[in-house]
Amino acid sequence: MTVQQLVAEPMKIHGYDAHTQRERAEEMLYKVGLKPEHLTRFPHEFSGGQRQRISIARALSVRPEFVLCDEPLSALDVSVQAQVVNILQDLQQELGLTYLFIAHDLSMVRHISSRIGVMYLGKLVEVAPAGELYQRPAHPYTQALLASVPVADPRIQQLDRRWLKGRNPQPNGGAERLPFLQPLPRR
After folding, report:
1. Phi and psi for 38 in degrees, rounded to 5?
2. N or C: which end of the chain has fewer CB within 10 A?
3. 65 φ, ψ to 5°?
4. Which intervals of the chain are annotated as region Disordered (predicted)?
5. Alpha carbon distance 16, 39 (integer Å)
6. How open is the CA angle 65-60-92, to the nearest 5 degrees?
7. Average pLDDT of the segment spanning 167-184
8. 74-128, pLDDT tens digit by residue?
9. pLDDT tens, 80-90?
10. Average of pLDDT values for 55-71?
11. d(CA 84, CA 46)
């Protein structure tokens, strides 16, 4: 499929006419920093960052209010990640979008999120405003997760590390289903 076909596919499914599909595809490519002449090219002709921009254009072609971003920055180098984050933030402001990010990159999560949920074994164990979660994590898993983030200064790295002890939890196991059975501090 060409970029034109990829970006237009959601619009086709939603019943947009061919003229609108072409017009909107050009508009969305422009919004993500690509040119209309890219419409006739194929995805393998683009870098990873450009392919991610094409995916963003495709997702936004039908003008959603809510966008689920599953690991939107994985496999991209740091400079390209920053560009993609900037594009997503600009589009959020311009189009009034709400994003739900699924990510393992805690520095990116902190930078781009206003509210964060932490999952453990498929369950949501903590939800808080981003600043509060990073300053005062309540759940032991959140505390351990944040303590595991690498720190550039080795002196700081040794401070305040929380390591989880005990056996690895089993998602379908008996007592292991409650690995953090202890009272949590109130916020």
Report:
1. -70, -15
2. C
3. -95, -25
4. 164-187
5. 18
6. 55
7. 58
8. 889 998 999 999 999 999 999 999 999 999 888 888 888 999 999 988 899 999 9
9. 999 999 999 99
10. 97
11. 15
pTM (two decimals): 0.80
Percentage of the chain exceeding pLDDT 90: 65
Helices 48-60 and 78-95, axial angle in degrees (round to 10): 20
Residues ≥6 apart with Cβ < 8 Å to 13: none
Domain boundaries, the chain: 3-113, 115-167
**How many other C-beta atoms lie within 10 A of the C-beta of residue 104?**
10
The domain defined by 3-113 carries CATH number 3.40.50.300: yes
DSSP codes of every residue in 31-100? HTT--GGGGGS-GGGS-HHHHHHHHHHHHHTT--SEEEEESTTTT--HHHHHHHHHHHHHHHHHHT-EEE
Alpha-carbon distance of 56 to 68, in angstroms, equals 11
DSSP string, 113-150: -SEEEEEETTEEEEEEEHHHHHHS--SHHHHHHHHTS-
